[in-house]
UniProtKB/TrEMBL annotation, chain A:
It is a multi-pass membrane protein. This is Protein O-mannosyl-transferase 2. It holds the Pfam family PMT. PANTHER family: DOLICHYL-PHOSPHATE-MANNOSE--PROTEIN MANNOSYLTRANSFERASE, PROTEIN O-MANNOSYL-TRANSFERASE 2. Residues 304-360, 425-481 form the MIR domain. It is an enzyme of class 2 (transferase).
TrEMBL record, chain B:
It is a multi-pass membrane protein. Keywords: Endoplasmic reticulum, Glycosyltransferase, Membrane, Repeat, Transferase, Transmembrane, Transmembrane helix. This is Protein O-mannosyltransferase 1. Signal peptide: none annotated. Residues 354-415, 426-483 form the MIR domain. It comes from Clunio marinus. Belongs to the glycosyltransferase 39 family. Pathway: Protein modification; protein glycosylation. The chain crosses the membrane at residues 163-185, 192-208, 214-232, 239-257, 263-281, 302-325, 619-640, 660-678, 684-702, 723-745. InterPro entries: ArnT-like_N, MIR_dom_sf, MIR_motif, PMT-like, PMT_4TMC. GO terms for cellular component: endoplasmic reticulum membrane. Rt/POMT1 and tw/POMT2 function as a protein O-mannosyltransferase in association with each other to generate and maintain normal muscle development. Residues 49-60 have a biased composition (Polar residues). It is found in: Endoplasmic reticulum membrane.
Length: 699, 768
């Protein structure tokens, strides 16, 4: 490692002595960084001994993995699986409920998970050091970058708890480090063992990042851009044959595309095979999916394969996360259409979901000869509990005004069953057949538009009759089927394969993510607030307060240095374009552009991890900005070093000394935010009160 | 074709117009008979044809006319422009006043135009220029603005000059054709291919349909395309020459026009910015210019393309706000001060009221932070038990109501005084005073008890006190805290003072919670009393929002806001007005657009099945979509080859290839990609600005392939290629003809006819 480092960093003109000197400094700096990191991160890692903030979610999910009960979450599984694994290995048995923040742990083995997450979070610092050192070839720059990350109290706070962010940030930083290494070795050492190692490492890390949270996509993009740039350079090297470029392309396609996809799918495979017991997430998934979960009513269920007249069935809407067709004794309120009995969809299983299927023209069905319901049949559906028929008439539906209202208990209640892509005479099969229910007179399809009814409808979902028959929410399938005359068959046969379950989980996750919209009147954190450190987040309240807030000195100076960087880059680019650079020394020019290009990649990382949030409609939180902060801190290191190198020697030392002085002093001031402080809101003379530099900080 | 007859009417119509008198008639005399059908229609902007004649009598006074002058320079030498324009006019204007019904969004825009006619203020989130243009045409046609535009399909009454209302969009839609032709020429594209480009635009059903009704897109597209045309000329012309100046000016003017029609015009402006930046960047390389020269050039460009457009944009809003000086239906969106500045607005209702709030003042209290609503009460009481089994005080409800209502009025009362008589000496209320607020209609006083509020149980219920004679005496005292007393003084003033009302016995502040009450509260908004702001209990809640109800008194005199104040308010409301995403039957997703998966039913006649349906020319749309892929493929191919030092295109060709990419491909992407991040309800017509660029790109590609083939020097191949292109064009024309019946909507259709048109089963035509 260090040997090649030396080889690399020694410029053409520098003597061996220089490089030895540099190597020494490199080792000293790295040890200092690691030491400081360990000290700051693991200080008070086990306090407070109660559930903090989102630990309530991720701890809970860890428990579910350990208990193997199925659940639904909008994030991919890797982060939670790692938390569960670390918990399991350190003796946590999955019994603690993680009910709400501030619940005491009371002897639960939570320490393992905390320490594991903190360790991941701590590893970010040396990796950032490596990244900057490789990008610029300057130990000094790397050291300042690392200092910026070490002394950021926000980074410490976020990385000390059982959250998804430590693994996310860890994998992200590792991907970036791998990317830089690959790029560095590409020039002279392509296809060596070391090059392959780093290439595969990068591929693995990007797969892991995106398997923790979907925001990992941004780092994938960054790596993609860097790869394209590398390949472009390779292609432009006319001393190499064209096949060399093709090999390069193939190697990267394998390591950075194919291999991550395999890994990603593999993580889901583990996820789906570990969680094989029925849990609270079942209702989000289709009937077929549920039949794979032990304890679910569909697991190994045996019921008739086909639906016959007289059978009692439940109908599930086929969209992702669709509920069961449901009705109950309550009527629609006066102001909403006709006063008929409500029909809704409901995601939980209930006796009120049961319907009796009848032919359109008679009440009785032959006890002897069983008639199977076929494609195109006209049927009536009777609500089993209230003995009323599903019905529709030309009235405005409660919420979706254009549709007709559904109610039960009248004669206008004949529906036609239309199987999707079905031929005439196809039977309706349990679970596997998708069909539309089309009202015979109004020619509209029974739909669940996915809107919630108000209080009077118990906040279940609205059902309406939609004249647009191609709406994607009009499909239903039979889930339960009770009928004595037909033989029961084992259900397991229809269970979907891994791939279809994999795809379905994604559809449900996507919908879940899209559904995380801020509710009316709810205030979410806005992206413009983040870089200026406008407002933090409480992690823990009561007498042991933890408040997630970036070190303002670090964050604000980060912005200053970024602006400086953009200005410098712009001026340099214009100068280059104007041809003013020709007079400069080659070595100086090379050094300048190496720094500036390093800065450009880091800036791109920052932009990629920040800008997309502006376009997101979902609920956003302050901690979404932390990946971008890491890039910004690294950029500051690069930029500071760039400026310092142009100063006389004595001034350089003063500058570096000053900045470390300021960093550590600000850390000392703000460290209570991360390590805990008591409630001091009323005493205006307390230390924390003096630190409220911005009105918007809430501690 | 019936155009002959129509041109007669038009002559008469235009003669009736007050504005253009002799000049026009003179022109008419000069004109050759062949073109006379076109001329009278060129009204406000379209002097194009007139000036094509030799006449030297034109008076270049305003920008628009000057633009036509430079525009004319091309046209004069180019009969092709004239032919294309004529063709466009024929298709766009054919039976323009049919159907005499409200078609699709004419519902909205027609309504706004009517409001312009009556000078009534309205609020819309699009800027005003498009509506102003149409309104000016309507004004000359003598429209009085009395049509209601009640619903799509309803018939226009006799006094609506529907032809003239639709005139501007149709004219602009027609002008797009020669402008596109010239734009293609400007990019050094072959005359024939440019003609082809013009024809393709004529033959697109979506552009045709969109140009025939009172809709904004034709203007938006024409302005942004002309801006691009003049920008290209600007960048090509010699520095600081007259041409340079004129073209730059026009580009700036048209950019600001397109932004002032719809804000999406900004995307074209961004494209222009990128093109200029690229031009500057390439120029930097040229060492023959000094740094100072370059800086000067950048500054002048900035003035022409940034400062002037901004000024025009402001001017348009100035006209807008000056024209609409009467109160209207959307007043409640704006602040009271704004409303009071409108004639017949708030001020006329409250006219004569004193500025100061005194004992006995009748006031309404408006919540100022966020949603506008007024403190309201009505005779109904809170239900005894809520659904979650909590009990209430069973007192009279107090809510926040978003509309003006007599129940919003309250009377200010000093607790010490018995009657409401104001007396000779005004008893002014100032900061810190304790008052009672008595509801005007029910004469009950504002009260709060230690009872949980209906929807936000952590807060305290606010009610109007009814004395049930049980052991719950009223707690009716409220302390007035003026929040901006530094600026407005300690006395409570109308609108200007922001007031917090603090309940004296419980030290809680009156607050708008943002939640809606259930059915029993008529879905009005909840008002509660919240624990004092000054003592936030800093428990670990994530976000704690405390919007206090600040009150505001309605101004009693007509306020006189400056343009800037009005502009700032209107502008911020326009930007922050959030759209509710509604599920429209014909709304579509951006991904559905390139392949035309869904049209929009614009109008439908029940008994004949005749209908107007916005659908593109599917042959053209598919071709353009594939042209994108082809261009990108070519680009990647060339780039990779060049990287290995294989030079396929010489410098000039490569430059042209890049230019096409930078203008057309980039233009397409800039106008298309943002829609993926938009959360509004989107429609097919949002795609049309992007479509234009795709058509241009297709033209470039047709020429590019031709150029490549020509290198082979095999006449047979070139000939085959030409035949292929021609037959493709004929096919495009055939498709255009086929779908013309749903563009014009004049043909009676049987169910089979409709089914035959349904080439894709995702197209939802209406039929019975």
């Amino acid at each position: 490692m260090t040997l090649t480092k030396t080889k690399e960093s020694s410029m053409k003109n520098s003597t061996t002595k220089d490089s030895q000197e540099k190597d020494k400094w490199y080792r000293i700096a790295l040890s200092v960084v690691i030491l400081l990191t360990v000290v700051t991160r693991f200080h008070k890692v086990l306090e407070p001994d109660h559930v903090c903030w989102d630990e309530t979610h991720f701890g809970k999910m860890g428990s579910w993995y350990i208990n193997r009960t199925f659940f639904f979450d909008v994030h991919p599984p890797l982060g939670k699986m790692l938390i569960a694994l670390s918990g399991k290995l350190t003796g946590y048995n999955g019994t603690y409920p993680f009910e709400k923040p501030a619940d005491k742990y009371n002897g639960t083995n939570y320490e393992g998970m905390r320490v594991f997450c903190t360790a991941l979070g701590a590893a970010i610092v040396p990796m950032a050091f490596e990244t900057v050192s490789d990008l610029t070839g300057s130990v000094q720059a790397a050291f300042i970058s690392a200092g910026y990350i070490i002394f950021d109290v926000g980074m410490i706070t976020l990385n000390q708890y059982i959250l998804l962010d430590p693994p996310l940030l860890f994998f992200m930083a590792a991907s970036v480090m791998g990317m830089v290494k690959v790029s560095k070795f590409t020039q002279n050492q392509s296809f060596t063992r070391r090059w392959w190692q780093w290439l595969m490492f990068t591929g693995t890390m990007i797969a892991c990042t995106i398997s923790v949270k979907f925001v990992g996509l941004f780092v994938v993009l960054l790596v993609g851009f860097q790869t394209i740039s590398d390949l472009w350079n390779v292609l432009g090297d006319l001393s190499k044959p064209i096949f060399y470029s093709i090999y390069q392309l193939a190697a990267r396609a394998f390591a950075l595309i194919l291999w991550p996809i395999i890994l990603y799918i593999f993580f889901f495979y583990i996820h789906l095979s570990v969680l094989n017991k029925s849990g609270n997430g079942d209702g989000f998934y289709s009937s077929g999916f549920q039949s794979r979960l032990i304890g679910n009513s569909l697991y190994n269920a045996s019921m008739p394969r086909e639906v016959a007249y007289g059978a009692i069935i439940t109908l599930k809407n086929h969209k992702t996360g669709g509920g069961y067709l449901h009705s109950h004794f309550h009527l629609y309120p006066k102001t909403v259409g006709a006063r008929q009995q409500q029909v809704t969809t409901y995601t939980h299983k209930d006796d009120n979901n049961k319907w009796l299927i009848k032919p359109y023209d008679r009440e009785t069905f032959g006890k002897k000869n069983v008639t199977i319901v076929k494609n195109g049949d006209l049927v009536r559906l009777e609500h089993f509990q209230t003995r009323r028929n599903l019905h529709s008439h030309n009235e405005k539906a409660p919420i979706t005004v254009k549709h007709f209202q559904n109610g039960t208990g009248d004669a206008n209640d004949i529906f036609k069953i239309l199987i999707v892509n079905g031929r005439e005479g196809d039977p309706i099969e349990t679970v596997s057949t998708k069909f539309k229910l089309i009202h015979y007179f109004q020619h509209c399809a029974v739909t669940s538009p996915g809107k919630q009814l108000p209080k009077w409808g118990f906040e279940q979902q609205e059902v309406s009759c939609n004249p647009n028959l191609r709406d994607k929410n009009v499909l239903w399938n039979v889930e339960d089927n009770y009928f004595e005359m037909l033989p029961n068959v084992s259900f397991h046969v229809y269970a979907p394969s891994f791939i279809s379950r994999f795809l379905e989980s994604h559809a449900v996750m996507l919908q879940g993510n899209a559904g995380l919209k801020p509710k009316e009147g709810e205030i979410t954190s806005r992206p413009w607030q983040w870089p200026i450190n406008y407002k933090g987040q409480f992690f823990s309240g009561g007498n042991f307060r933890i408040y997630l807030l970036g070190n303002p000195i670090i964050w604000w100076s980060n912005l200053v240095f970024m602006a400086l960087f953009l200005l410098t880059y712009f001026i340099a680019a214009v100068k280059q374009q104007r041809g003013y650079e020709e007079s400069e020394e080659i070595q100086k020019k090379e050094y300048k552009w190496r720094s500036l290009n390093a800065g450009m990649w880091l800036f791109m990382g920052w932009i990629l991890h920040y800008l997309p949030f502006w376009a997101m409609g979902r609920v956003l939180y302050f901690h979404h900005y932390f990946p971008a902060v890491i890039f910004n801190s690294m950029l500051t290191g690069v930029m500071f070093n760039y400026l310092a190198e142009r100063m006389p020697n004595w001034m350089k030392h003063v500058a570096i000394g000053t900045i470390f002085g300021i960093l550590s002093y600000s850390f000392k001031l703000f460290q209570p935010l991360a390590y805990g402080f008591a409630d001091a809101s009323t005493e205006s003379n307390s230390t924390m009160f003096g630190l409220r530099w911005l009105e918007s900080w809430e501690f | 074709m019936g155009t002959e007859i129509k041109s007669q009417e038009n002559c008469e119509n235009s003669l009736r117009n007050r504005k253009k008198k002799e000049a026009l008639t003179q022109n008419n005399v000069l004109k050759s008979s062949e073109k006379s059908e076109v001329k009278p229609q060129n009204e406000s902007k379209g002097k194009v044809e007139n000036q094509q004649q030799i006449e030297s009598t034109t008076k270049p006074q305003i920008h628009e006319e000057r633009n036509d002058k430079s525009f004319r320079i091309r046209l004069e030498f180019d009969p092709m422009s004239v032919v294309l324009f004529t063709l466009a006019i024929i298709t766009r204007f054919f039976k323009l006043s049919e159907p005499r019904n409200v078609v699709f969004d004419e519902l909205h825009y027609g309504k706004y135009v009517s409001l312009y006619m009556r000078n009534v203020f309205f609020f819309e989130k699009h800027p005003p220029l498009g509506k102003q243009l149409i309104a000016s045409a309507a004004y000359f046609a003598g429209y009085n603005g009395n049509n209601t535009f009640s619903k799509i399909g309803s018939e226009y009454s006799e006094n609506v000059p529907i032809f003239w209302l639709r005139f501007i969009p149709a004219l602009f839609g027609s002008l797009l054709v020669p402008v596109s032709y010239n734009l293609l020429l400007q990019l050094k594209i072959n005359r024939w291919v440019a003609t082809l480009g013009g024809l393709l635009i004529v033959f697109d059903n979506a552009l045709l349909t969109q140009s025939r009704f009172i809709l904004m897109e034709p203007m938006l597209i024409l302005f942004s395309t002309s801006a691009l045309l003049f920008l290209m000329r600007f960048l090509d012309s010699k520095y600081f020459s007259i041409n340079w100046c004129l073209n730059g000016l026009l580009a700036g003017v048209f950019y600001s026009f397109s932004i002032s029609v719809k804000y999406v015009g900004f995307y074209s402006y961004v494209l222009g910015g990128i093109l200029v930046a690229r031009h500057i960047w390439l120029e930097l390389r040229d060492k023959t210019f000094s740094d100072l020269t370059i800086a000067m050039r950048i500054i002048t460009k900035g003035i022409l393309l940034v400062v002037i457009p901004t000024a025009i944009y402001l001017g348009i809003f100035h006209i807008h706000l000056n024209m609409l000086y009467k109160a209207g239906p959307h007043d409640s969106v704006m602040t009271s001060a704004f409303q009071a500045s409108l004639e017949g607005g708030l001020a006329s209702i409250t006219h004569g009221q004193p500025l100061k709030v005194v004992h006995g003042s009748q006031i309404t209290l408006r919540h100022t932070n966020g949603r506008p609503c007024w403190l309201h009460s009505h005779a109904q009481v809170y239900p005894v038990k809520y659904e979650d089994k909590r009990g209430s005080s069973h007192q009279q409800q107090v809510t926040c109501y978003s509309f003006k209502d007599v129940n919003n009025w309250w009377i200010v009362k000093r607790p010490s005084k018995v009657d409401f008589s104001i007396g000779d000496e005004l008893d002014m209320i100032k900061d810190g005073d304790e008052i009672q607020l008595v509801h005007g209609l029910t004469s009950r006083a504002l009260n709060s008890h230690d009872v949980a509020a209906p929807v936000s149980p952590q807060s305290q219920e606010v009610s109007c006190y009814i004395d049930y004679n049980i052991s719950m005496p009223g707690q009716l005292l409220w302390r007035v805290e003026i929040l901006n007393k530094e600026e407005e003084g300690i006395h409570w003033h109308a609108i200007k003072s922001q007031v917090r009302l603090v309940h004296v016995t419980t030290q809680t502040a009156l607050r708008f919670t943002g939640r809606q009450l259930p059915q029993w509260g008529y879905n009005q908004h909840e008002i509660a009393a919240d624990k004092n702001l000054n003592h936030p209990d800093t428990s670990d809640q994530k976000e704690r929002e405390r919007q206090l109800l600040k009150s505001e008194m309605i101004p009693m005199e007509r306020t006189d806001l400056s343009f800037w104040q009005k502009f700032r308010e209107l502008q911020s409301k326009m930007f922050w007005q959030s759209d509710t995403v509604q599920n429209h039957m014909y709304s579509s997703e951006p991904l559905e657009w390139p392949f035309l998966s869904k049209g929009i039913a614009y109008w439908y006649q029940k008994d004949t099945n005749a209908q107007i349906h916005l659908l593109g020319n599917i042959a053209l749309w598919y071709s353009t979509t594939f042209s994108l892929l082809f261009y990108v493929a070519f680009l990647v191919f060339y780039l990779l080859r060049r990287r290995r030092q294989f030079i396929d295109l010489n410098d000039q060709e490569w430059r042209k290839f890049q230019d096409a990419g930078f203008t057309f491909l980039l233009g397409y992407l800039i106008n298309f990609l943002p829609y993926f991040f938009v959360e509004r309800t989107l429609f097919l017509h949002n795609y049309l600005p992007a479509l234009i660029y795709k058509i241009y790109l297709l033209c470039f590609l047709i020429e590019h392939i031709h150029d490549i083939l020509r290198r082979s020097n095999q006449n047979l191949i070139i000939f085959t290629y030409k035949v292929l292109v021609c037959s493709w064009l004929i096919y495009v024309f055939h498709v255009f003809r086929t779908f013309l019946i749903v563009s014009y909507g004049r043909t009676r259709l049987t169910t089979d006819d409709v089914m035959n048109l349904r080439w894709r089963d995702t197209w939802d035509f209406i039929f019975s």
